[in-house]
Amino acid sequence: MTKVTDLANAISGAVDDGDSVYLGGFTHLIPFAAGHEIIRQEYEDLHLMRATPDLVFDQMIAAGCASAVTFSWAGNPGVGSLRAFRRAVEDGVPNEITIDEYSHFGLVSRLFAGARDMPFVPLRSLVGSSLPEHNDSIRTVKNPFAPDEQVCVVPPLNPDVSIVRGQRASPEGDAHLWGITGDVVDAAFAADTVVLCVEEIVDTETLRSDPNRTEIPGTVVDYVVEAPYGSHPSYTQGYYGRDNAAYLEWDEMSKTHESTQEWLDEWVYGVEDRREYVEKLGAERLLDLEPTHDYAEPIDMGRYA
Amino acid sequence: MSDLDYTDTELMITRAALELRNDDTVLVGVGVPNLACNLAKRTHAPDLQMIYESGTVDSNPDALPLSIGDPVLATGARSIVPMYEGFSRYLQSGRIDVGFLGGAQIDKRGNINSTVIGDYDDPKVRLPGSGGACEISSNAHRTLIITPHQKRRFPEEVDFITSPGYVEGREEMGLRGGPEAVITDKAVMKFDDNGEMYVDTLHVGVTRDEVQEATGWEVQFADDVTETPTPDDEEIRLIREKLDPDGIYTGGGD
């Protein structure tokens, strides 16, 4: 059964005010188009979750969508600080947000548990750091097999909604991903509702020709959206590169709350959808991000009939 | 010794590269650590295997990556694994020999703070936080710290321990390794048997007083403090012509 819809419909169907919303992706495959749609639909009081908040959370926080952020590294990758995140944490601008902070392994361990309905996951780090003093979700237990040993544990994370991206999907929501998959797959399996955005919707036979590459099965997906360039200024491996200039520009544009609002007015509220955003970016900028081809060798699945 | 004038950053890169061995698997960060690893690979450690927090294993980037999740690290890698598998199968399992860390504050026991300056609940400065830094310091066999040498960066105790150094009971907690060297723009420091930092080598032209001035506790010096090896011409040429031709990390600011 097809789950294909447009992004505005998927977001309004999946997300409610007050929800916890995980946006997957580690540098790669960040759902910027979906984040912008959440801003346009003026959601409030969201508990935003992702390992690396990145610019998309800076934009959503500046727009007043967030009341809490779960994260493990809140910076502008390769550039410096996330300025809107800092304004919210340090000065309560535009509103106070609470933070729920982990190390990367702590956070992805929570997703791992959430995706598998495990009561908790142990990990060999976080002990010796100050993080457990400030987060009640990081606790220590006695190793039941070696009672002298104290082990850190974290509880499952089950977001109300996860929004994830892949390269291509069938209309049923089976998705091929390649390149850096980061936290994407566990984020999809851990959530109640999943919005899947892809560069291309392809036929079911294409997906089933390479089942090892199907990282996300349609059985966990509720909405499928074709959103070309929906990762920009993040990237989609094989389709377009990371727009490093945009990350540097954001550092300038986000210097004050006012200048950040001007950017949102122009690039989020001022465009109707991703298509208008892409047209506004212009062909030249997108062509500069095009990689040359580097195809993987085909594999032989064999046919056994 | 190089006849070329080298910058502080170039010296830190070449000195960090010297710490890497040919059979090492190293968890790399962007910037100076990435340049140090690529320099080592092109000189004495061609088989060095580079793994990034994003999950790319044995990356051989064609261009300088500007983020640890850059697509140049994925194309042509030996393998790419999800984040959970990178942190568990590679790092927690003991398969990473060396990790690189930096931070806003480092104290005399090698604890690193990259979380907040001031009080956690009412911070003066909110920094990005751990990312994988806590795991790297807890699970890599050796940790190398690279940072500019300034008094505010070297307090006697950090405001927040993001990455544990030689905290009390480190071994009993099941933590592996520990910081091996701190490479700054003034000196290279190592750690004694009590887990306290001491100056091992001083960079050319740097005095003991200058290091003390830039450090927030009474610095210990090795009995036989020597001069830090300087970059040679080939290393400088590789950095400028091959590794960072646009001077993104090495140009200016020194």
From TrEMBL, chain A:
Indicate whether Nucleotide-binding appears among the record's keywords. Answer: no
Q: Which UniProt keywords apply?
A: Transferase
Asked whether the keyword Plastid is assigned, the reply is no
Protein name, as recorded: 3-oxoadipate CoA-transferase
Q: Which domain of life is it from?
A: Archaea
Q: Which organism is it from?
A: Haladaptatus paucihalophilus DX253
Q: Which GO terms describe its molecular function?
A: CoA-transferase activity
SMART domains hit by this protein: CoA_trans
Automatic annotation (TrEMBL), chain B:
Q: Which InterPro entries match?
A: CoA_trans_fam_I (IPR004165), NagB/RpiA_transferase-like (IPR037171)
GO terms of molecular function:
CoA-transferase activity
Keyword vocabulary terms for this entry: Transferase
Source domain of life? Archaea
Its recorded name reads Coenzyme A transferase
